[in-house]
Give the backbone structure.
Amino acid sequence: MTATASQTSPRKRAGNGAARRIDADEIGLDALIGHAGYAVRRFQIWIFQDFIKTLGDVDIRPTQYSVLTVIGANPGLSQMAVAKRLGIERARLVHLLDSLEQRRLVKRIKSKTDRRSHAMHLTTQGETALAKFKRLAAEHERHVEARIGKANRERLLQILADFT
Amino acid sequence: MTATASQTSPRKRAGNGAARRIDADEIGLDALIGHAGYAVRRFQIWIFQDFIKTLGDVDIRPTQYSVLTVIGANPGLSQMAVAKRLGIERARLVHLLDSLEQRRLVKRIKSKTDRRSHAMHLTTQGETALAKFKRLAAEHERHVEARIGKANRERLLQILADFT
DNA sequence: GGACAATTGTTGTCGTCAACAACAATCTTT
DNA sequence: AAAGATTGTTGTTGACGACAACAATTGTCC
């Protein structure tokens, strides 16, 4: 067993079948402790759950919110442009927009300069709705701040700034 | 339009259909900039892709790695204990273990003290395999460090420590 | 100007993953 | 012993990322 990375001796009771009750939080994570990806994944799950819960009344999920926000700030974008900017596949964006268009929050307008593409716009209803979504999202963000601390949240945003 | 959260005037060319070419990275994210969840999501996608690529030869995904690591460090755990510790649903863990057991990395041993549960163990083969996975995972972690910087990575781990 | 390559939106498939619900077998409680 | 809780399992649903193929349209190159 070539000892290269984190060698960890199996903890207490490496026996078999039988075992004493384990207090669930005294279970060692071993090498996982040093992996940013693991921590990030757990945090992301928490943060999405809070977002979904906080925006539960208006039934808006994180991805939908990101699409609405970008369209709201950049009216006339093509689907391709939105997809690229948000790192969403254009195939997936189609369904997202279908849903948002059915809810009368967004409309696809056929572009006259490029008849392949659509120009994305918020409806009037979509704009007032987005304003409300933004208030709720800000509330969610305060939950995040309360959870990890104001300074930590800002440092986090700073560290991950160039992934956005 | 009650100005509560981030009011942002639609950028250039709020017109309709026709529009000039947009350079794709000059598209404003508006309120998204201030949301930790968005940055975390984008980062998590990047980090998982790198993990999957780096461990591509051995065909191990992040979740599988986390399961193997925890079982390796805590032999004899029940499926329930593993699931709870990793925040995985026990229903999902069943399939994960089915796969890992078929690959002879893990074995379920019927517990004698509680005949409902199984005691999870790595096979001998599983232990040597895990050692290799850990080396590759460490390599992946160096990619992360190279991407966001050594100090930032450590700060990140520290900030998110209690989500693990 | 006309053939060929690239782009846009769309449809469809596949695999991962979280969230539930239901169930049989087995403890635990009272 | 009866009622309730827990464990592993199966199945369903929906969000999501990754691909592949396609028609319509645009762009390029000779």
Strands of chain A lie at 106-110, 118-122. Residues 45, 49, 78-80, 90-91, 93-94, 114, 116-118 of chain A lie near DNA strand C (CB under 10 Å from a C1').
